[in-house]
Write a structure and sequence with these properties.
By secondary structure, this protein is mainly β. The chain has one helix and 15 strands, in the order αβββββββββββββββ. The protein has one domain. It has a six-stranded antiparallel sheet, with no helix packed on it. Strands 1, 3, 6, 11 and 14 form a five-stranded antiparallel sheet that branches. It has a four-stranded antiparallel sheet with strand order 2-15-5-9, with no helix packed on it. Strand 7 and strand 8 form a beta hairpin. The longest helix is centred in the first third of the chain and has 15 residues. The radius of gyration is 16 Å and the shape is globular. The termini are far apart.
Length: 220
């Protein structure tokens, strides 16, 4: 079963790679043939934390698109190159970020772990590292729903009306650099996103789908 999943990941992402040709090659989609039959509720929001940003659905059993998303891959994975992705968020009030929950899943190859970080914005792409990376292990297997990858951060102050980024990537060497996974979609209109194919972050605005997640913290 694992072998067939890995083969399908490779074939699916290769076939879709020609659809996006921006910034040295666009991100690649992954699609599962069947939706998962068992849905579990996502983790609860910790007491005292509020949503600073979220594009997750309100349903406890259908929080995101559980059988399609962006490929995530470390530079030493069986995909042959790095495939990282980032989700932007803009607070509506001055806030303090303490946690992110994202729909990142394990594709069955490499170490089952991914790094999540928070960046400031630089001309529509992640710029200065503000927090992280936090290594999240034991991710749910793609395709499944609705467990989320959760990263806790030391409090990070963010400013209303300013764009920030949650990034998902891996180390360039060592444990985790062979990770293959998926950042599941949520069906909403496009807004700016960003990708990294191993040589730096680029803005990306050419897809009808966006990665799913939410940012939690304290809001005055």
């Amino acid at each position: 079963m694992k072998r067939s999943l890995l083969l399908f990941l490779s074939l699916s992402t290769f076939c879709s790679s020609t659809l996006f040709a921006q910034g040295g090659g666009g991100p690649r989609k992954v699609h599962a043939k069947q939706k998962p039959s068992i849905h579990l509720p996502p983790q609860e929001t910790p007491a005292g934390l509020k949503k600073i940003y979220s594009n997750l659905a309100a349903s406890k059993t259908d929080v995101y698109n559980d059988n399609e998303g962006w490929l995530l891959a470390g530079p030493n994975s069986n995909q042959g190159k790095a495939e990282f992705f980032a989700l932007p968020f803009t607070p509506t009030a001055n806030s303090t970020v303490e946690q992110v929950q994202v729909a990142v899943q394990y594709g069955g190859s490499g170490a089952n772990q991914v790094n999540l970080s928070i960046y400031g914005d630089a001309n529509g792409a992640p710029g200065t590292l503000l927090a992280g990376p936090v290594t999240v292990t034991n991710l749910p297997t793609f395709p499944s729903c609705c467990t989320l990858a959760v990263a806790n951060f030391s409090p990070v102050a963010v400013t209303a009306g300013t764009r920030y980024w949650v990034t998902a990537d891996t180390p360039f060497t060592g444990i985790g650099s062979d990770f293959v996974g998926v950042w599941d979609f949520v069906a909403k209109p496009i807004y700016p996103q960003a990708k990294n194919k191993g040589s730096g972050w680029f803005d990306f605005n050419g897809s009808p789908s966006e990665s799913a997640g939410e940012v939690l913290g304290t809001v005055p």
